[in-house]
Amino acid sequence: MQIGIHSEFGHLQKVIVHTPGREVSLVDPEIREELLFDDIIFEEDARIEHLNMLKIFSVAMPDDGEILEITDLISEVFSDSEAKDFFIDRLITEHPEKNFHLIKKSLNDLSAEDLLRFMVEGKMTPAIDINFSLWPLPNLLFTRDLAAVAGRCIIQSRAAKKARLRESVLMEAVLKYHPVFESSREHIIQIGNNQTIEGGDVLVVSSELVLIGMSERTSFTGLVAITEELLKHGVKYVVAVDIPKKRSSMHLDTIFTFCSKDECVVYPPVIENQTGNIVVLGKAGDQIVVEKRTSLKETLEELSGHSYTFIRCGGEDLTDQYREQWTDGANVFALAPGVIVGYERNAKTFESLERHGYEIFDQFEFIEEYTNKAFKPRSGKKMAIKFQGHELCRGRGGARCMTLPLLRKLLNH
């Protein structure tokens, strides 16, 4: 399958997602913080909200578009005995504190479906008779952090938190063994065991320009290692954005996302008001050249050659900005140039978008409008689609966090 992401806003063709399942119902309030959750999620409503989001995707994607479920990919990988052995060995290596080696034979004896269920749901999985303490993986919902595609390169993420490291091992097995990635394996970028990077910190501006957030989840050494590889694969500049190491801004895309080639939704207190936190990394011969910059907007305009409009998450009022960034107002996801989706509850953000020329649709209006006719992105027609996410937002991730695009169609916009 063809894989390639040359911008954040090309027409979406292939994407990996995960509709939340029983694993979110297994988050005990007593351990929710260890599992990186601020609240607990009601599974049934979260599933409905997520599936409704995917209906928007299906309507907006071209006829050959494909939405892939990550658990389907994992199950298919586990059906291969070599891949299953690889995964179990990597699990043992990456989690020495868990003593997985004690149950290696039991894991090997599980069917592909049961191994998947045990890995995702943990020890509470019924009908799996393994006496072993294992937490669920409720964060699998946020497939963005499993990997990142930049051009033809696939950046294999390595989670910063132990609660998510098992997800990294699952994705490693998928990248190594699933047929979807067969033609792309020579373009996979990996980092060392002491380094971390997560997909939410990687934003592709163009084939030549990539942004990477230096957040609480992406280490400096991880950023540098990825930069070195990207610069070998045709990227001219990597812009490192140093952001607060806080839960509320855990990734760059929680405070900054693209709508089109020249418009972005931003969280002003960090993106507009903070200066001196930008570093441009490029190449001169065999050497990496590092240059400090003042602001992200000026840097984008300098390196891309065109101007940018920053649309404020939460509008003009500071309290509204704080509130709506908390519920992922800045974490929008582009389905095509100037066509974005985000949580309905961020009303002030949608008002900002409307002031900037976006036609506002709710999920039902958009689906009804385009179910019986092809959706064709048009230059100059900007749309912001709001969908319900009252349960999903409790997980602290928006539309971009819940998607891992593999292919976007290049459009002349």
Report on the architecture of this protein.
α2 runs parallel beside α13 (363-370). The chain has one domain: L-arginine/glycine Amidinotransferase, Chain A (5-stranded Propeller). The two termini are 25 Å apart. A five-stranded mixed beta sheet has the order 6-7-8-11-12, sandwiched between helices. Strands 14-15-17-16 form a four-stranded mixed beta sheet, with helices on both faces. A three-stranded mixed beta sheet has the order 2-1-18. It is built from 13 helices and 18 strands. The model has no long low-confidence stretch (mean pLDDT 94). The chain has helices at 22-25, 43-60, 70-78, 81-94, 104-109, 112-121, 162-177, 220-232, 268-271, 296-304, 318-326, 347-355, 363-370, and strands at 11-17, 66-69, 147-150, 153-156, 188-189, 202-206, 209-214, 237-242, 256-258, 263-266, 278-284, 287-293, 309-312, 333-336, 339-343, 359-362, 383-387, 404-409. By secondary structure, the chain is of the alpha/beta class.
List the keywords.
413 residues, alpha/beta, L-arginine/glycine Amidinotransferase, Chain A, 5-stranded mixed beta sheet, 4-stranded mixed beta sheet, 13 helices, 31% helix, globular
